[in-house]
Every structure is written in structure tokens, then in C-alpha cells.
Write a structure and sequence with these properties.
The chain is of the alpha/beta class. The chain is built from 17 helices and eleven strands. Helix 6 runs parallel beside helix 17, helix 13 crosses helix 17 and helix 15 crosses helix 16. The chain starts with a helix and ends with a helix. Bound molecules: pseudouridine-5'-monophosphate (PSU) and manganese (II) ion. One of its GO terms (molecular function) is metal ion binding.
């Protein structure tokens, strides 16, 4: 028999009360677009999207083009996109076209905002592009359950010396949201990243594969803890996690589409060179990922950018299907 406090917890869950609904003060601090707000209240499928990938992950204007295309893919597949960023100190959930353009054209002058940086950007009334960790925070605040990105951060190579472990991993460990990514880049230590996700109690599955993907390549040499084969499989995992009130997150790792993985080896050797350059130029901390992404793109003559765009769009397609399957389950 469940105790009465457990029962009231379950009934709260079934009504899907998000922290925002539970705490009116939060409402005055964030701006939710009318479309996203309607979709959430009506139980429609919503997909959160991060913004560091726009400001720091890709150059202008490809970043704007990709952000718009990703939003269209989400809509075409029956879900509502909610791109999250901080504009003039206001966390925005769902950007309109003008806001998206502003963010994309400001590029790297926007503060890369991980969980650690949120209060700083809000206090200074600055502009912040949210990483996976900060996007998880805001998505969870408004009750979004599915979040699409390109690649999440992870345990960096040499982390045993530098302690450089992305806060994406600890945020996933305490936020019950499903993140769809193409795995993690080989600029990171993939086996250690998987170990750390296990420590954080994050559910990890590869999509239609036994192996955890390595962003630009379909395989990393590491077996994924679980395998899922359809959006419905994914939705059932999210539903079980939520009904059990587990506070840890979920990572669905979707391999890059085959036609774009051919360049994987060229990109891998460019990555090795960029890593050496980063060490030589002493690029560390939050500057490391943007440096490596830009350098690998230069070294491959744009091939890595094309592959990056293709995999983000594929993740948006699958993420929307998962969000729709979830909305039909609940
Ligand atoms: N990996 C990518 N592209 C990206 C990022 C990571 O392939 O754009 C971004 C994401 O926003 C991710 C962040 O959340 O970098 C992680 O940064 P750090 O390693 O500093 O935690
Ligand atoms: Mn870091």
C-alpha cells in the first residue's frame, strides 16, 4: 500500500505540475512564447532546443539557417519547437524569428551559458546562449520532457589532470528530461563519459544500434548500455522514468545518418590535429569546445560543418517523433 504522501506525490505527477506552475514567482522571471505556452498547457508535443549550438557551434549565417530548418523539421513532425536562450537578462523559452536572428548574428559575442553562468547573465541583463546544462534547467522549469541537440558535453581527455567534465553530465543526472544527441565527440574521452553518466544514474541508449555513436562517426568502439528501436520504445522509457518520479535524465544517442558518416575518418584526423593545437595554444575550459569545432571545420574545408548540420536535423526528426509518441502515451 502506498502511503498518503506517496499518493499525493503520484497525483501531482499525473497532473504534470511543473516548477513554474508550482511557483508563481518564476513566471515573472521567464518569458514563454505564446505558442510554447499553449502547447504545454494542452499537453501537445514540445521539443526544447539549445542555443550554444547556434552562437558558438556554427558560423553565421549557417547557424541561423540551421536553427530555422531544425524548427521547421520539428513542426513538420507534429511538435512545437522551444529554442531557449537568455535575451537582455530574460530567459526566453521559444524564440520568435527576430530573436533567433539576433542571437545567430551576435555569434560568439553572446555569453556561452552553462548552469553555472545563468545567474551572472540574468543579473547583468546580458545575452546568453544556453548549453545543454542550462537548457535542461529552463526546460525542466516549464515541464518540457524532450530536448534535441547535436552533441552533449562530456569528460574531456586528460580529465584526470584538468578535472574538465562538462556540467551537462551532472545536469542530466538531476533533470528528468530525455536528451536526443548524436552521442559525444571524439574530442572527448567517450569511455569515461559513459562511466560518468552511469555514476550520475543517467539512462543511456543507442537508437537502432548496439554501439554508442561518436558524433561524426556511427561507432565509438563502446557498447551502449541499452538499445531502443523506435520512437515508441523511447516514449515508454520516458514515461516509466517520469511515473516512477526518478529525478535523473535520459540520453538517446542517435548515430549520424550513413551518407554523412563517410567523412568520419577525415574529420577524426583533423580532430587529433586540433586537439594538439589546443594544447599548444593553452586553450582550456569552456573555450575548448568552440575552439575545436571551429578549427576542425577549417581543417576539413567545411566537411565537418555539413555533417554537423545533417546530424542535428536527423536528431530533430527523431526527437519530434519521440515527443509525439510521448504525448500520445500520457
Ligand atoms: N558539442 C558539440 N557541439 C556543441 C556543444 C558540444 O558537438 O555545440 C556545446 C553544447 O551546447 C554543450 C556544450 O552543452 O558545448 C558543452 O560545453 P562544455 O564542454 O564547455 O561543457
Ligand atoms: Mn568544461
Amino acid at each position: 500500500m502506498a502511503s498518503s504522501s506517496a499518493l499525493s506525490r503520484i497525483s501531482t505527477l499525473q497532473n504534470h505540475i511543473s516548477p513554474l506552475e508550482a511557483n508563481n514567482k518564476l513566471r515573472s522571471l521567464v518569458k514563454i512564447s505564446p505558442e510554447v505556452s499553449d502547447a504545454i498547457s494542452n499537453g501537445r508535443a514540445v521539443v526544447a532546443l539549445e542555443s550554444t549550438i547556434i552562437s558558438h557551434g556554427m558560423p553565421y549565417p549557417q547557424n541561423l539557417q540551421t536553427a530555422k530548418e531544425v524548427e521547421s523539421i520539428v513542426r513538420e513532425n507534429g511538435a512545437i519547437p522551444a529554442t531557449i536562450a537568455i535575451l537582455n537578462g530574460v530567459p526566453c523559452i521559444g524564440l520568435n524569428e527576430e530573436e533567433l536572428e539576433r542571437l545567430a548574428s551576435l555569434g560568439k559575442s553572446v555569453q556561452k551559458t552553462a548552469g553555472r553562468d545563468i545567474a551572472h547573465v540574468v543579473a547583468r541583463r546580458g545575452n546568453g546562449a544556453t548549453t545543454v546544462s542550462a537548457t535542461l534547467f529552463f526546460a525542466s522549469m516549464v515541464g518540457i520532457q524532450v530536448f534535441v541537440t547535436g552533441g552533449i558535453g562530456g569528460v574531456h581527455r586528460h580529465a584526470n589532470h584538468t578535472m574538465d567534465i562538462s556540467s551537462d553530465l551532472t545536469a542530466l543526472g538531476r533533470t528528468p528530461i530525455a536528451v536526443i544527441s548524436a552521442g559525444v565527440k571524439s574530442i572527448l574521452d567517450i569511455p569515461k563519459t559513459l562511466e560518468y553518466l552511469e555514476t550520475q544514474e543517467v539512462y543511456v541508449a543507442a537508437y537502432k544500434s548496439d554501439e554508442f555513436p561518436a558524433f561524426f562517426t556511427e561507432k565509438s568502439g563502446c557498447k551502449a548500455p541499452f538499445r531502443v528501436d523506435s520512437p515508441e520504445d523511447c516514449a515508454r522509457v520516458i514515461d516509466a522514468n517520469m511515473k516512477l518520479n526518478r529525478q535523473a535524465g535520459i540520453l538517446f544517442a542517435v548515430p549520424i545518418p550513413k551518407q554523412h558518416s563517410a567523412a568520419g575518418n577525415i574529420i577524426e584526423s583533423a580532430t587529433q590535429r586540433a586537439l594538439t593545437e589546443a594544447r599548444e595554444q593553452k586553450v582550456t575550459g569552456s573555450a575548448e569546445t568552440p575552439f575545436l569545432l571551429a578549427r576542425v571545420n577549417e581543417l576539413t574545408g567545411g566537411t565537418s560543418l555539413a555533417a554537423n548540420i545533417a546530424l542535428v536535423k536527423n536528431n530533430a526528426l527523431i526527437g519530434s517523433q519521440i515527443a509525439v509518441a510521448l504525448s500520445q502515451l500520457i
